[in-house]
């Protein structure tokens, strides 16, 4: 089917959602639950893995999304960066498979992620996790959904009650100062944020070096569910910069944000300073 160009309006989200579901089906064709993927794999510059499914999904999404909104620029993990995006109002931000290592090993915790930025702000976001049977969606000002159900982040306000997922070194450092429940690590950063949005967990920690494509769609989903994604100093994430790289990030239910940020500040202060 040939996609017709759409303006920003009520028809755009359904079209993007359907596109992401089709992209997920492409990835599922080479996914093997509980076993190594059937896809060809190799290492990118820097050592991170990539599969033929990543490339196939990326190509499919670029063709389909560019047809829906031809004026939008493109930023994707699997496409060479074009700084033209810095001068464009609209930018597609795409991770064809967020959680490639999980995908390769047969874990269901991977997702197809698509966000649309308007002047650097996410206004549409989809995190589609086909192996988990979950599609998270959000439109700015219209709430967040898991499949057809509206989602809201938890009302937990104390660390002692909180279930927190993240890299083990970050959780271990926090546990030396605060009591909380450590949840299993969620390898896809986008799903880690989305599962804060749907109350599976109450907070998620993200180590430095996340990229726009890892978090932009899930940031909007979390925000529309009443949660917050911030840097360690409490500042919101900023998108479509020349270097789309982020430092440490904290995702939480709204009421938990301040106590968790204070705790993470204490963690940083307790760490040995390099000479």
Structural write-up:
The chain is an alpha+beta fold and 275 residues long. The protein has 2 domains: 12-150, Fructose-1,6-Bisphosphatase, subunit A, domain 1 (Fructose-1,6-Bisphosphatase, Chain A, domain 1, 2-Layer Sandwich), CATH 3.30.540.10; 159-270, D-Maltodextrin-Binding Protein, domain 2. The protein has 7 helices and 14 strands. It has helices at 12-28, 52-68, 100-105, 168-175, 189-197, 212-224, 257-270; strands at 41-43, 49-51, 73-76, 90-98, 111-118, 121-129, 134-139, 144-146, 149-150, 163-165, 181-182, 203-206, 227-231, 249-253. It has a 7-stranded mixed sheet, sandwiched between helices. A 5-stranded mixed sheet has the order 11-10-12-14-13, with helices on both faces. It has a two-stranded antiparallel ribbon with strand order 1-2. α1 (12-28) packs antiparallel against α2 and α5 runs parallel beside α6. The longest helix has 17 residues, at 12-28. The radius of gyration is 18 Å and the shape is globular.
